[in-house]
Design brief:
- The protein contains three helices and six strands.
- The protein has a single domain, classed as Gcn5-related N-acetyltransferase (GNAT) (Aminopeptidase, 3-Layer(aba) Sandwich), CATH 3.40.630.
- The strands form two sheets. The chain has a three-stranded antiparallel β-sheet, with helices on one face. A three-stranded antiparallel β-sheet has the order 4-6-5, with helices on one face.
- It has 145 residues and is α+β, with helices and mostly antiparallel strands.
- The N and C termini lie far apart (32 Å).
């Protein structure tokens, strides 16, 4: 979680983890949501993937439709095996089949692994932005074909 938001945190207690799970389970939307990523063999839980409206930074104009972001969080033991790319590809297809015109991803400028996933997904790198999460991020975008 070191790359998440302007003030990344770590979960230190079971109560913090359960509160995070409860917030994520509260999403009730036909397009947006959070999904568990599991291995195809054995069903081992290795992370999660989300699709949700992205919060704007303070002072950003909020007129127009909200941008929707895709993001993933995997256990370090699962890194580098293609799980994030495979799971995100499925959710992007789902998002576009439900009519979303575009999906964005923001990555910490130092998070080269997530940037590589974005590129493998065919997302265009649009440069650096401070439009979201009150912190500089590299912005990626994929549009519906």
């Amino acid at each position: 979680m070191r790359f998440l938001g302007a003030h990344p945190t770590t979960m230190r207690t079971r109560e913090e983890a359960l509160a995070s799970i409860a917030r994520r389970r509260a999403v009730d939307d036909p397009i947006h949501g959070i999904w568990m990523i599991t291995t195809a063999t054995g069903g081992q839980r290795i992370g999660n993937l989300l699709l949700k409206p992205i919060p704007l930074s303070a002072g950003e104009p909020s007129d127009g439709p909200k941008d929707v972001e895709i993001g993933w969080h995997l256990h370090p033991d699962a890194w580098g095996r293609g799980y994030a790319t495979e799971a995100a590809s499925v959710i992007l297809d789902r998002a576009f089949s439900h009519g979303l015109p575009k999906v964005i991803a923001v990555t910490d400028p130092e998070n080269s692994a997530s940037q590589a996933v974005c590129r493998r997904l065919g997302m265009a790198h649009l440069g650096r932005t401070t439009r979201y999460y009150d912190t500089p991020n590299d912005l990626f975008e994929k549009r519906r074909r």
